[in-house]
């Protein structure tokens, strides 16, 4: 997945998450907490650093290249394939320095990852999904008070098209199933709609995901879902509030599931005991 880097773990003091209401909640933080509250704790409260997974590293570099392209479209700058490819190469290298080691097995894997990302960027620029006109906004960060949510909601949208459609870019290893993809990202998509409605007074005509699929021949696939009705909005607000209240109570515990097999925090998770959490709170 292409990361929401504005909400990166440990971007603020750990006190932000310490036994009090958080300053705000983002869709990425809520999804992380609801997916596994203990992993959320390791990443965003204890700030335990791990080597970056290769797929995440490539996704961030691709995200940076697309941002350069869309900003150039917005500002009438250089949106040529060469300029965008150069932005990708720079980001790929800079991220290795700025965010620490990447989990490459060897130099050959690094080179393959670099080329795979570059091919995905080229596929997007050559696809019908590439922005043709001037976007309404690029990398827009919104923060709004939402009725039913006890802290402000924040969200950073990759792209807002001229008709107010928010678009988020995702990198993937396989072609997505449209129905499952929209459901998997429901918190994010509906959060963007909630933010846009308050900030602009406009109801987006669609909530869109654009998947950049790293197959042998890269694919660019748009998945559109209709704007949320009141039921979907209430459901997402309830999920966001569940995360807020859990964080406020410092409720962090293992949530065993399939993803545990590739989680980087298995050793820390195996050492978890409820008493240790209580001792930490009392300290």
CATH topology tier name of the domain at 137-239: Lambda Exonuclease, Chain A
Can you summarize the main beta sheet?
Answer: 5 strands, mixed
- Strand count: 5
Q: What's the multimeric state?
A: single chain
Number of helices: 10
Tell me the fraction of residues in β-strands, as a range. Answer: 5-15%
| Low-confidence runs | 1-9, 11-15
In percent, how helical is the residue content?
40-55%
Q: N-to-C terminal Cα separation, in Å? A: 37 Å
Taking all Cα atoms into account, the compactness measure Rg is 19 Å
Tell me the structural class. alpha+beta
Task: Quickly give the CATH architecture of the domain at 137-239.
Answer: Alpha-Beta Complex
Shape: globular
User: What is the mean predicted local confidence, pLDDT?
Assistant: 90
H and E string: HHHHHEEEHHEEHHH
Give the strand line-up of the largest sheet.
1-2-3-4-5
CATH class of the domain at 137-239: Alpha Beta
Key descriptive features of the protein:
283 residues, Lambda Exonuclease, Chain A, five-stranded mixed sheet, alpha+beta, 13% strand
Structure description:
With 283 residues, this protein is α+β, with helices and mostly antiparallel strands. Among the domains are: 51-134, no CATH class; 137-239, Lambda Exonuclease, Chain A, CATH 3.90.320. Helices cover 47% and strands 13% of the residues. A 5-stranded mixed beta sheet has the order 1-2-3-4-5, sandwiched between helices. It is globular, with a radius of gyration of 19 Å. The protein starts with 26 loop residues before the first helix and ends with a helix.
């Amino acid at each position: 997945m292409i990361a929401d880097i504005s909400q990166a773990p440990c971007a603020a003091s750990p006190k932000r998450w310490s036994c009090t209401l958080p300053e705000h909640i983002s869709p990425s933080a809520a999804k992380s907490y609801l997916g596994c509250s203990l992993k959320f704790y390791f990443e965003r409260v204890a700030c335990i650093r791990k080597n970056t997974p290769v797929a995440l590293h490539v996704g961030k570099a691709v995200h940076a290249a697309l941002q350069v392209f869309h900003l150039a479209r917005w500002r009438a700058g250089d949106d040529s394939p060469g300029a965008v490819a150069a932005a990708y190469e720079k980001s790929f290298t800079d991220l290795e320095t700025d965010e620490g080691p990447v989990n490459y097995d060897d130099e050959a894997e690094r080179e393959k990852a670099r080329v795979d990302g570059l091919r995905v960027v080229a596929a997007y620029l050559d696809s019908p999904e590439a922005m043709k006109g001037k976007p309404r906004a690029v990398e827009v960060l919104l923060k709004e008070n939402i009725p039913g949510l006890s802290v402000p909601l924040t969200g950073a949208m990759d792209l807002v098209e001229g008709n107010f459609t928010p678009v988020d870019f995702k990198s993937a290893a396989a072609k997505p199933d449209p129905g499952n993809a929209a459901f998997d990202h429901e918190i994010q998509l509906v959060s963007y709609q909630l933010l846009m409605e308050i900030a602009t007074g406009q109801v987006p005509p669609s909530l869109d995901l654009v998947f950049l699929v790293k197959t042998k021949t890269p694919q660019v696939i748009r998945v559109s879902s209709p704007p949320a009705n009141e039921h979907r909005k209430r459901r997402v607000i309830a999920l966001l509030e569940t995360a807020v209240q859990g964080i406020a109570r410092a409720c962090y515990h293992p949530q065993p599931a399939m993803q545990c097999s590739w989680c980087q925090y298995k050793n820390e998770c195996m050492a978890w005991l409820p008493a240790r959490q209580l001792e930490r709170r009392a300290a």
